[in-house]
Amino acid sequence: MTKTVGGDRRLFADLAMAIDPGELVAITGESGVGKSTLLNILAGLDDADAGDVRVGGVALAPLDEAARTRLRRERIGFVFQAFHILPYLTLEQNVALPLALIAPDATAARARAGEMLGEVGLGTRGRDYARDLSGGELQRVAIARALVHQPAVILADEPTGNLDPDTARRVLDLFARAVRSRGAAAVIVTHSAATAAVADRVLTLTRSGLTAPPRDAMVGGG
Fold it and tell me: Measured between alpha carbons, how far is residue 126 from residues 88, 156, 157, 179, 220 in Å?
């Protein structure tokens, strides 16, 4: 996989990786090397100049934008540094959002959201709003939302960048357990050695690719 920006500035080239179900991979690298761009390519939000990405065996390159959107809704979960929890919705409603986009059964979606909140230790807080939560609690809500629709792939961009070290460690342990128990393939983009330490593999992104290139350009098997 190769990506250039600005016409001629190469971010990376000859990049190849595969991630198995249940595996958590951390991608590190210097600022500006293209870590977030790589995450966008894996999500189908951007395109590589050469190469392809497969999610659960589905190639992204041939898909139009509508098909990519459906795939993201159904097969990919996202965890962001800034949480992106909607303040005017309850925690239960926030977690249920991915289900609301792919299934019409609101009652079942609320029940599933409640179950996920319970798994991240917030089972009694479903009717609360974001303003009542700490940063660590908000990130636990974000993890519940990312996993509620049982995606094949989880993509996380600096998921603990806004948390203190002790809270970050607890959230990361929770994230790792939740990903592995569901057999999802997970990618964490981070500059933090502590964050990378929870991963099964740590790969460093450079302009020449990855320092420990695995098998081929796939995500989530297939």
Answer: 13, 23, 25, 22, 31
